[in-house]
Amino acid sequence: MTADAHERVPKRANGEREAEVLDLLLRADGALTPGEVAERLGGELTYSSVVTILTRMHAKQLLDRTRRGRAYAYAPVTDDPGFAARRMRTVLEERPDREAVLARFADSLSARDADLLRQLLGADQDEDR
């Protein structure tokens, strides 16, 4: 690759690439193969780079995959709100004092969000009965 090619495509962190690929897959009508992902990224990444990213994301349980011909087709395991909820749960699980974290989180909510959370928790309790 020439020096000019390196200047056109700046190197990004793996997390940024994963976020870009995840966003692409969330907007897709269905599962995509690595070739389709590479094409939709505008040829910015090689096929093998896309395969590596998708394989890592599958290993992290962010993507499901199914055989499509000789390749796998990848799709997100959940939608965007589901991924946000997973991130919140991961942060909570990493902290030793769950009660303190939840209390601080609840204290930081706007009145509107606190009311919404109460409604959602109340709906869950109604379903348990």
UniProtKB/TrEMBL annotation:
Q: Which residues cross the membrane?
A: none
Asked whether the keyword NAD is assigned, the reply is: no
Q: Does the record carry Lipid biosynthesis as a key word?
A: no
Supply the alphabetized keyword list. Answer: DNA-binding, Transcription, Transcription regulation
The UniProt entry's sequence similarity note says: Belongs to the BlaI transcriptional regulatory family.
* Protein name listed in UniProt: BlaI/MecI/CopY family transcriptional regulator
**Which species is listed as the source?**
Streptomyces albidocamelliae
